[in-house]
Amino acid sequence: MTTSRQIKKLDEAVINRIAAGEIIRRPSNALKELLENSLDAGATNIQILIKDGGLKLLQIQDNGHGIRKEDMAIVCERFTTSKIETFEDLSCISTYGFRGEALASITHVAHVTITTKTADSNCAYRAHYADSKLVPPKPGVSAEPKPCAGNTGTLITAEDLFYNAPTRREALKNTSEEYKRILDVVNRYAIYNAGQGSNIADVSTLANASTLDNIRQIYGSSTASELLELKKDVEGLDLKVKGYVSNANYNVKKIVFLLFINHRAVESLALKKTIESVYATFLPKGTHPFIYIGLEMKPQNIDVNVHTTKREVRFLYEDEIIAAIGDVIHERLAGADTSRSFLTQT
Ligand code: ADP
Ligand code: MG
Fold first, then answer.
1. Where does the DNA mismatch repair protein S5 domain start and stop, copy by copy (predicted)?
2. Is the minimum distance from the CB of 35 to ligand 1 under 6 angstroms?
3. Which residue, 26, 288, 290, 333, could crosslink 256 as a Cys pair with Cβ 3.0–4.6 Å?
4. pLDDT by residue (tens digit) across 189-209?
5. CA distance 314 to 152
6. Residue of the nearest CA to atom 13 in ligand 1?
């Protein structure tokens, strides 16, 4: 027989670490948050450095607006954000972040250093963080942000991810798998944000490149040369569809599905299924297309207030919107087919 045990409140540090582990499950989650912060800061150039699949080091440098020195003491605290002020602001949000949880979470599971400079400051400042607070870089010195040289923008490093969560670390020991996931996040944003340069060991896009240039750079010219452009305003649904999808001559073993809704990389299993069924009539059995789609819809129609790691989105008029996108792609594929048979007849 078991006896009833006394109920105790968990230690603050334990609560924080558990909460952080929900938001940052693996290195690619942390990288996505950092990358989105850089984009929110208006960065046009982003450099990324990864060691051991991000477990040893995640480093991201941007040329965005930087963080003011006065804000450096609280920037890594939970629920501190410069992006919204009221609950109502949520309905018209245009930034990636808004909950002010990402940096805080990362400091609970990694050693974080921020070096940042705003345009109107004479110098950059560097500070170290643990458990959402400023900490001295070594014992006996001040934890206050220290002036240093630097360009306008922000450099953030997160070292030894999950150093304090040995079971999580053990579960992530396949560093090449983690690196692949990071690359996937970077690839998606590189394509969507064509025109801005970005750089990670294996992905490097040029500042003036087009979307198609970036697809060619990342997925190869055999993919880029078989794409049909999508561009359509769907009346009545307040929906703008743009993107590139592969034609009926192209197929791969596994679908490549890059989806953005209002500039955010997301997943939608329902949309993926519909697109696969459209292609089923055009492609050989067991083969799949390349799909890159960016959707823009009224922010009011999307539920953004979901858990940070939930990439799967929910939106209003989902069935109608998904059917409409299926139709747009079907029309494009069928149209491309006609022009081909027309060519062979002449
Ligand atoms: P959120 O993005 O939800 O606001 P974060 O924890 O990701 O929360 O970031 C907290 C705040 O730190 C942001 O609101 C922003 O003001 C600032 N910040 C974070 N990263 C950057 C960056 N790369 N450049 C400028 N400011 C940043
Ligand atoms: Mg953020």
1. 215-334
2. no
3. 290
4. 888 887 666 666 556 666 677
5. 37
6. 81
Nearest to 59 by CA among 146, 141, 155: 155
* Residue whose CA lies nearest to ligand 1 atom number 11: 81
The two tokens of residue 342 are: 């027309």
Dihedral, CA of residue 124, residue 129, residue 133 and residue 134, to nearest 10: -50
Class of 12-205 in CATH:
alpha beta
Residue 45 CB–ligand 1 contact under 6 Å:
no
Residue nearest to atom 12 of ligand 1 (CA): 75
For residues 105 and 219, what is the distance between their CA atoms, to the nearest angstrom?
A: 33
Let me know: does 34 contact 156? Beta carbons within 8 Å: yes
Phi, psi (deg, nearest 5) at residue 310: -75, 100
Domain range annotation of the chain: 12-205, 226-345
Q: Is 90 within 8 Å of 304 (Cβ atoms)? A: yes
The residue assigned the tokens 């995640």 is 58
What phi, psi does 41 have (nearest 5°)? -80, 5
Give per-residue pLDDT as tens, 265-274: 888 899 999 9
Please name the helix (run of DSSP H) or strand (run of DSSP E) that holds residue 158, with its range, or none. Answer: strand 153-159
The pLDDT score that the predictor gives to residue 1 is: 63
Distance, CA 58 to ligand 2 centroid (Å)?
15
3-state secondary structure at position 250: coil
Q: Is 75 in the pocket of ligand 1 (CB under 6 A)?
A: yes
pLDDT at 244: 97
| Section 83-104 average pLDDT | 72
Ligand 2 (single-atom ion) residues, CB below 5 Å: 37, 97, 102
Fold of domain 226-345: Ribosomal Protein S5; domain 2 (3.30.230)
* Ligand lying closest to the C-alpha of residue 100: 1
Taking the model in full, what pTM does it have?
0.80
- This complex has an ipTM of 0.98
Inter-residue contact 230 to 329 (CB < 8 Å) = yes
